[in-house]
């Protein structure tokens, strides 16, 4: 006799250590299993080329500079001191040069602020005795990074004399806290894509704040809509959960759906069903947590689930029986009503 409702029978599932021909393997969640998983996890370190010290800013095309020559206001502010400072800015043209009185064309692109300051001072010394020159960048326009994806303010950000790291760029763009996949951040530089884990920013050995951006870099923070955990069975709020970080443990999953249904669930029937890409080559795995004792949730806290896992909580035997009865009784009532009606009709005909 079969009772209605979905349940998982382990009688047809091969236990751990199954042969290669088995399609499904049942693996108990134990301290030994968790210790083995921890031992196989590798610490992900960032490539050395991403951890170099930030370079000094180099002036580029379309930057606007403010050049000060002390005691020579006619050179510092040729438009007049009463004008706004932008009106006296010097634009670095598309060929990398700018025009300056007396010395005419000056190559600016590719030089640091200090190098350009020294160059202008040297050239002016032919016309002015011991010129005191200062150079500042009014508008940074030559070097930009682009931030896109699950952020609140996507678009370009300028690189300035203050080095910009990954965390600062994302802070300026604003992360979408609901839809962002923090573990899937991608940095594209010179045609190469570097995966970064923003979720690791608070770890003790986090290196993400040491990754400084360069002009032309692209940051993409993906959406998390393709990374889900499906929670089914005897839980209080069956639904799909979305990954927002790289890891989510079984305890997080169960807690997010309101826990096990204390009336209908079987505490020893908590399963994590994990498929494989090629079922003909390797068996799918079903991990079982015997959560009848609350202490078993300590194991759940250390067991990480993966995207596309299915967490299924089976019903208690009495729940399956009650469901069977609940569907049988209405059917029996209908049959009884039909039999009574037929009996009443027979008695009426015999009179």
UniProtKB/TrEMBL annotation:
Residues 53-137 form the Polysaccharide export protein N-terminal domain. Residues 1-12 have a biased composition (Polar residues). One of its GO terms (molecular function) is porin activity. Residues 1-22 are annotated as: Disordered. The keyword Transmembrane applies. InterPro entries: Poly_export, Poly_export_N, SLBB_dom, Wza_C. Its main location: membrane. Keywords: Cell outer membrane, Ion transport, Lipoprotein, Membrane, Palmitate, Polysaccharide transport, Porin, Signal, Sugar transport, Transmembrane, Transmembrane beta strand, Transport. Coiled coil: none annotated. One of its GO terms (biological process) is monoatomic ion transport. The keyword Zinc does not apply. It is a multi-pass membrane protein. Residues 318-337 form the Outer-membrane lipoprotein Wza C-terminal domain. GO terms for cellular component: cell outer membrane; pore complex. This is Capsular biosynthesis protein. It comes from Pseudomonas arsenicoxydans.
């Amino acid at each position: 006799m079969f009772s209605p409702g979905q349940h998982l029978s382990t009688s047809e599932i091969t236990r751990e250590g199954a042969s290669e021909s088995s399609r499904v393997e049942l693996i108990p969640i134990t301290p030994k299993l968790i210790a083995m998983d921890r031992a196989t996890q590798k610490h992900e370190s960032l490539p050395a080329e991403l951890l170099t010290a930030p370079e000094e800013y180099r002036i580029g095309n379309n930057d606007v500079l403010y050049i000060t020559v002390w005691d020579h206001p006619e050179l510092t502010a040729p438009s007049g001191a009463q004008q706004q400072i932008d009106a006296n800015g010097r634009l670095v043209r598309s060929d990398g040069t700018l025009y300056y009185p007396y010395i005419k064309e000056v190559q600016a692109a590719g030089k640091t602020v200090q190098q350009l300051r020294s160059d202008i001072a040297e050239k002016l010394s032919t016309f002015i005795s011991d010129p005191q020159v200062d150079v500042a960048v009014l508008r940074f326009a030559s070097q930009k990074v682009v931030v896109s994806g699950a952020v609140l303010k996507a678009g370009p950000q300028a690189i300035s004399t203050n080095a910009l790291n990954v965390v600062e760029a994302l802070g300026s763009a604003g992360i979408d806290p609901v839809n962002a996949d923090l573990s899937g951040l991608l940095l594209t530089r010179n045609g190469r894509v570097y995966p970064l884990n923003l979720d690791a920013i608070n770890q003790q050995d986090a290196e993400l704040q040491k990754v400084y951006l360069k002009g032309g870099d692209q940051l993409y923070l993906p959406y998390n809509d393709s990374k889900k955990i499906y929670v089914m069975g005897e839980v209080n709020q069956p639904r799909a959960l979305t990954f927002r970080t790289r890891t989510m443990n079984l305890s997080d999953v169960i807690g997010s759906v309101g826990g096990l249904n204390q009336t209908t669930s079987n505490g020893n029937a908590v399963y994590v069903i994990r498929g494989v890409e090629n079922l003909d080559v390797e068996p799918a795995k079903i991990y079982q947590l015997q959560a009848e004792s609350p202490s078993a949730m300590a194991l759940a806290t250390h067991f990480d689930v993966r995207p596309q896992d299915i967490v299924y909580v089976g019903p208690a035997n009495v729940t399956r029986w009650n469901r069977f009865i609940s569907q049988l009784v209405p059917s029996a009532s209908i049959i009884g009503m039909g039999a009574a009606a037929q009996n009443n009709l027979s008695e009426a005909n015999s009179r």
